[in-house]
Description:
- There is one protein chain.
- This protein is mainly alpha-helical.
- The chain contains 24 helices and no strands.
- The protein has helices at 30-40, 45-49, 52-67, 73-89, 93-110, 118-130, 134-147, 152-164, 169-182, 187-199, 203-216, 221-233, 237-250, 255-267, 271-284, 289-301, 305-318, 323-336, 340-353, 358-371, 374-387, 392-404, 408-421, 425-431.
- Helix 18 (323-336) packs antiparallel against helix 19 (340-353).
- The two termini are 14 Å apart.
Amino acid sequence: MLAVGLGSVAVWGFSTPPNVSPRGTSPAPASGAASFAECVADTSPATILESRQLAEKTIRACSGALQSRSLTPAEVAQARLYRGAARTALGDALLAAGDYLEALRHYDSAIDPMNPDALQLYRAAAALEGVGKDNAALAKYDAAIKADPKLALAYYGRGILLATRERAYNRAIADFDRTLTLDPANTHALIHRGEAYSQVGDFGHALADLNRAIQLDAGDPAAFVARGLVRQRRGVLDLALADFDAAVKIYPRDQQALRNRGALYAVLGRQNEAIADFDAVIGMNRNDPLAFFNRGYAYFAKHEYELAVMDYSTTLYLDPTMGQAYLNRCLTRTIQGKELVMALADCDQALKLLPISISARETRGFIYLKLGDAAIAIAEYGAALQMDANRPLALYGLGLAKIRMGRKDEGEADQAAARVLNPEIAKEFSAYGLD
């Protein structure tokens, strides 16, 4: 019975073209021109979302441009959009939302419904995506493509949204195909298409795209993080770790690289190194639930249960929908042998969020054994075995519960069946205070 740790996906976001003003506008006056140019030069919101280094630079430049009060309304909107992406990358969702909404106010009034500008539609879509209005964003991306079928950015933005929010990976791949037809050197489209390919199990095409992205830009940590994730999914853990190391070497403050390397360290049993990486991420962004969750897993693996519970609790404060965090906190409290009523409440909440979780049923059985209610433990283990008849933990727990109910022969038979599946299962129960 082991808590579960999670990795994270590095590539998501949206993009706007560098330093492009919509038709009918003029450049910013000289007093704000330099800051505005730095705000939008050679980057995009998608790139900013994946790079803390760019995010920090973008906030400084865009804030300077906005404070100059010399930008046109269109440039104000673009600076707000870029700064919103940067603030999102740094975990400041509240301020980011304010920037996105200000950008949207401009686009809502500036877009002519009779003759819409494709670039303006695209930027409106990016801002809508930033505030979580996914359906409206998709409609705006569609409208941008209809207005200009050769606007590569619109296919790119729609593809990212389809992959990350809708999990429509094949449709996303088609959009990235179109993006790369129009813009063959777009390394971020290659990264996102590679990630989408990996999600549908096409690792050959995924690695081909990511290798190509690295050939084109070996200084982009996002490509190494994405390739590391693909290699981890394939089980090639040494190469995955090498990719995460490469990303951290390029930019030591890259949160995605640190978070994913930490998760892999935890899987490899290198818990102190894992905790160091998660400490670094949390030091940069205390609103990252995955960093706290994964650090909790590392503490759990070290049997530092109080620290694990604290991190799982912080995770749930930041993201109350993470069912696995409820389950892990339930298990940790159960192993501690105290707060069993609270542990049961955690498992109940986990089942609401993860209704087919076998682990939740097994853990509830574990709790009822500790509470001395063998009859309910039998029901819980039975429910787990209905979902998977070959779960050694559920079989052994069922046997133990039956023995406590006086059904010795049946119980010993269940335990013998569990040992066939896992010869070490009795040691696992004994380590948790049950035998």
